[in-house]
């Protein structure tokens, strides 16, 4: 029963994690304009995401523009895009595999050992997908930090972390915890008896 509860909790955390990964990938607030230098007061806030860049004006208007060409993007953005998409696909596949191996479902047959192995495999797949997301977010964050502290970067083009990268990080962390819980549901081997099993005496011994 405890193993079943661990599987349900791990599946729920991994599901919340993949939702966070999808939301973070779609949001355009991966990095936002940093208010450094003398020009602190500005009427426009710039945001850049994986798919578009947006300008938020003080009047409440929002103007977004989708990136025209993939070839014009830098290598960090292209790699982050690819890794986040791979992460979402792999994590969803891991959730499907884990769902078939959970004890509370009827999929995967009635063999408990086989179902536990399927759930463990799904947890390992989820871990691989979440690690891809962690690498993607960390790579993008390193690119932001490197450009921020570069003395040749103009002050008005410096960016800092946006809310989307934190959501993606949180989703990856939840997926790691959920995948680890599912991977921990590995089947235990049947214990072998330490002493020989005593057999009842046959009827011939009493004759």
From TrEMBL:
| PROSITE patterns (UniProt xref) | CLAUDIN
**Biological process according to GO:** adherens junction organization; cilium assembly; epithelial cell-cell adhesion; establishment of epithelial cell apical/basal polarity; otolith development; pronephros development; semicircular canal formation; sensory perception of sound
Pfam annotation, one family? PMP22_Claudin
Q: Where is this region: Disordered?
A: 188-207
| Location(s), subcellular | Cell junction, Tight junction; Cell membrane
Q: What is its main location?
A: other
Q: Which GO terms describe its cellular component?
A: bicellular tight junction; plasma membrane
**TM spans (from-to):** 6-27, 79-98, 118-141, 161-184
Q: Which domain of life is it from?
A: Eukaryota
Q: Where is the signal peptide?
A: none
What membrane topology does the annotation report for this chain? Answer: Multi-pass membrane protein
Q: Which Gene3D superfamilies match?
A: 1.20.140.150
Per its record, what are the GO molecular function terms?
structural molecule activity
**UniProt keyword terms in alphabetical order:** Cell junction, Cell membrane, Membrane, Tight junction, Transmembrane, Transmembrane helix
Which InterPro entries does its entry note? Claudin, Claudin_CS, PMP22/EMP/MP20/Claudin
The text of the family note is: Belongs to the claudin family.
Q: What's its job? A: Claudins function as major constituents of the tight junction complexes that regulate the permeability of epithelia.
Q: What is this protein called?
A: Claudin
Species source reads: Seriola lalandi dorsalis
Specify the taxonomic lineage.
Answer: Eukaryota, Metazoa, Chordata, Craniata, Vertebrata
